[in-house]
Specification:
Strands 3-2-1-4 form a four-stranded parallel beta sheet, sandwiched between helices. The chain is of the alpha/beta class and 266 residues long. 46% of the residues lie in helices and 15% in strands. The chain has two domains: 92 residues, Rossmann fold; 145 residues, Rossmann fold (3-Layer(aba) Sandwich).
Length: 266
């Protein structure tokens, strides 16, 4: 997003627009604010996590709830961009992928080369394309890419990947195939189970969709000794409602050590 907004400024834009299930909105709003641009966010009318919506609104973006799906919101954003009133900063903007590909450079720097396996959530497919672009530009070969999608893309609880028609489907899945990897479809139960394990066993609190890569690896298995990277795309505080849906209810107690000890053992 830093690259996309920088290029928009360079080209004389006065406003940016994106359709978003949350993370793109928060990022676009923040970078637009820093650049002095107006930001218009088109989100599906239902299903966007409040943490992400709060970020976009706090940064001063104009947030509109579109009565329809993400795909319909994206179509509207594209039309506005074609009219010349706004610059699109969804991943269909090629500068987005040019920026995102640097994540592959960072991994290669940290690990001394590409990992054997790269697992990541698969919503629109932009991130998958960007990592493939970056690793191929390095000339060190592609890791085996495992792209994790929800079985029910229209209604999954993993809101960040609730995208029925991936904008980059053909390119992303071609990259996955070229890498010797696979697209793995996951139930919400599998995604939520991996999300809870990451928090409760590793202390990594992410939003549910971010755990999709971990869930996919558990489903397909990985050769022992392989170097594996799972991309976590969003902090858990972006979707705090997910905790309310799955965690035990809070229990009120009197400020009495015996009462506290008793409640703690229940």
């Amino acid at each position: 997003m830093a690259v996309a907004v920088w290029k928009a400024v360079e080209e004389g834009a006065e406003a940016v627009v994106c359709a978003s299930t949350g993370n793109t909105a928060a990022s676009a709003a923040a970078y637009a604010a820093r650049a002095g641009l107006a930001a218009l966010i088109l989100q599906p009318a239902s299903g966007v996590a409040l943490g992400k919506l709060a970020q976009a609104r706090a940064a001063g973006a104009r947030v509109l709830a579109v009565r329809g799906s993400f795909d319909q919101a994206l179509a509207a954003a594209l039309e506005l961009a074609e009219r010349g009133t706004h610059t699109l900063v969804n991943s269909l903007n090629p500068w987005r992928l040019e920026g995102q590909k640097t994540a592959a450079f960072e991994l290669a720097d940290e690990l001394g080369g590409p990992p054997d396996v790269l697992a990541l959530p698969y919503g629109g497919g932009g991130n998958t394309c960007a990592y493939a672009l970056g690793f191929e530009e390095l000339g060190a070969g592609l890791p085996r890419i495992v792209a994790a999608e929800a079985t029910d893309r229209d209604a999954t609880l993993a809101s960040a990947i609730r995208i029925a028609e991936p904008a980059h489907r053909e390119r992303a899945e071609e990259a996955v195939s070229r890498s010797g990897g696979e697209v793995v479809s996951l139930s919400d139960e599998a995604i939520l189970a991996a999300w809870q394990r990451l928090a409760q066993e590793e202390g990594v609190f992410c939003e549910p969709s971010s755990a999709a890569g971990v869930a996919a690896l558990e489903q397909i298995g990985v050769e022992a000794g392989a170097m594996v990277v799972c991309v976590i795309t969003g902090h858990g505080l972006k979707d705090p409602e997910a905790v309310e849906r799955s965690a035990p209810p809070l229990v009120e107690v009197d400020p009495d050590p015996d009462a506290i000890a008793e409640a703690a053992e229940r």
